[in-house]
Amino acid sequence: MTVHRPAWLAVALYAACGNITATEEGVVSLVLFVPQPAEVEVGQALALRAAALDGDGDTLDVPIIWRALDTTLVVDSTSGVLTGRTLGETGRVIARVGELFSPAVTFNVVAPADTLIRIAAETLFVAPEENLSGELTVELRGGEPLEPVAGRKVVFQVVEPVFPDPEDRTVELSGGVLLAAPRTTATGSPPGLRLQRRDGFASPAEAIVEVSVYRPGGEALPGSGLRFVIVFAP
Q: Which of 153, 173, 191, 220 has the fewest CB atoms inside 10 Å of its own CB, making it the most exposed?
């Protein structure tokens, strides 16, 4: 089973063309690698990455200059370390080598979070005449003292049983999926998800749903990996 984690993707590419020529170092394009989703926490130091490429697509070892276009965040001009400043706002970042500029990449500035807590029981039972489990309730908290954190994605994934072909799944989360990533509300909890039997299929004796939250950049928060065990009565 492959557990979902945020990825760093090449989301911006600028190729030199027309009257824009290669830089003195031979750079013809810039590729930016940013986390998906493109978010940064307030106060978080998130190191961005970029690659300067020559005409053959090889990486060149040249200085890349970073710049924030908005005051909602700041970025170190030489290291590319990004820091969020204004909660709930967006901010744009660009990189350049000489006169070759990348497109602007927009980041959401989100609330810092520290830990994921299980609220519902670890084991939930589904009676023979029922199709749905109880809500898989968790709460995301941050700050000192810990308070609920809103607006952050929480990843729910059915990790057992394993379905090599999702079309053959016998259980599913609300919405008919094996993986969901709703955002937390003002209570620190995402809208209630449940596990359900899939119509027309015999459900397993039990299933496991794993829940995690990741900081921008991919680091799992404490409490991530907690599991709910859902037992289906025959």
A: 191
Nearest Cα to Cα of residue 63 among 80, 47, 75, 46: 80
What is d(CA 15, CA 53) in angstroms, rounded to the nearest whole number? 9
Q: What domains does the chain contain, in order, with CATH numbers?
A: 7-110 (2.60.40.1080), 115-232 (2.60.40.10)
What string of pLDDT tens digits covers the 234 residues of the chain? Answer: 555 666 777 655 655 554 445 566 788 888 888 888 899 999 999 999 998 888 888 899 999 999 999 999 999 999 999 999 999 999 999 999 888 888 899 999 999 999 999 999 999 999 999 999 999 999 999 988 899 999 999 999 999 999 999 999 999 999 999 999 999 999 999 998 999 999 989 989 999 999 999 999 889 999 999 999 999 998
